Amino acid sequence: MNSDFSASAARSLTDLPQPESYLLRATAADGTLRLVGVDMARVVEEARLRHDLSKTATAALGRTLAASALLAVVLGKRNDARVTVRVDGGGPVGLVVAEGSNDGRVRGYVQHPEADLPPRESDGKLDVSGIVGHDGELAVTRLLDNGEPYTGSVRLQSGEIAEDVSLYLGTSEQIPNAVLLGVYEEGGRVAQAGGLLIQAMPGVTDATLAQLEANIAALGMLTDQLRAGGLLGAIHKAAEGLDLRLATEAQPVRFACRCSREKAADSLKFFGPEERQEMTDAGGQEVFCHWCSETYHLTPEEIAALDEGEARARA
């Protein structure tokens, strides 16, 4: 990324798709099914702009961002719960990482944003599996009730993200589930993106599961449903005949990084005084946030303030 990226991206971000991204929660079949869906075209388009992503890299990160938003709701019990999804499949895009919070904040990045592949010859769809790879693992990190981080992982089965997230929930969390994820790009920008996670709860009947399976098979591609009837329409189709009950109003979802100028300055504390003096002599230091592609230029005065603060702490 060049040093002007943050400014040029900020100008482009004023022309993002509407409406704002949002998340819906629902239950069905007398509470024996839990549904969480997210429409996040705006968020994924912002990620594309921030990181200057290729078309296929956008799809890979977009699916992972949607997955992190859904998992933060399903796995997060604390009000400030965060879930990090890390996909390392050995493909051209390298690492794909996304973090979701159950308050609707998400952020993420890929290791090689410029990596791209042509559409698959078999069906003309974006080759997400090819760019992610499937010789590796999907890892999910979350906080336990005691505040300690816990990471579980599964070997990648497809690299398509949705199947791998579903496998993780079933094997590492013992949660029977179905996961749908999708990103659709049109005219050089993200037109549709989102995800749907359906969790089978205790007491679910075989008849309910059979109806759910038939509904999902008939639903087809999630992005087709998002284009046709929006997220609410997709949820209704997934729970058709199962007495759907929306649990809450829509929750806003946004791309929000936790970086700041103060944290960028704090990162220089890991360098010794001599190294920081070299930064000062060079006119300052740039600190780059890989989560959001923001670059902070720290002045010599700000760097000198770190030395002064450490000196006061030792006094």
Compact overview of the structure:
The protein has 315 residues and is α+β, with helices and mostly antiparallel strands.
CATH superfamily of the largest domain: Hsp33 domain
Q: Tell me the helix content.
A: 25-40%
Mean model confidence by pLDDT: 90
Number of strands: 14
Return the string of H and E elements.
Answer: HEEHHEEEHEEHEEHHEEEHHEEH
CATH fold annotation of the largest domain: Hsp33 domain
Radius of gyration, in Å, reads: 21 Å
| Count of separate DSSP helical elements | 10
CATH architecture of the largest domain: 3-Layer(bab) Sandwich
Question: What does it look like?
Answer:
The chain folds into 2 domains: 18-255, Hsp33 domain, CATH 3.55.30; 261-314, HSP33 redox switch-like (CBS domain Like). By secondary structure, it is an alpha+beta fold. Strands 1, 2, 8, 9, 10 and 11 form a 6-stranded antiparallel beta sheet that branches. Strands 7-6-3-4-5-12 form a 6-stranded mixed beta sheet. The longest helix has 21 residues, at 55-75. Mean pLDDT is 90; it is low at 1-11. The chain is built from 10 helices and 14 strands.
Write the layout of secondary structure elements.
Layout (H helix, E strand, L loop, with lengths): L4 H8 L9 E7 L4 E7 L1 H11 L3 H21 L6 E7 L7 E6 L3 E6 L17 H5 L4 E7 L5 E7 L6 H10 L5 E10 L2 E12 L5 H14 L2 H17 L6 E2 L4 E2 L1 E2 L5 H7 L5 H9 L3 E4 L6 E4 L1 H15 L1
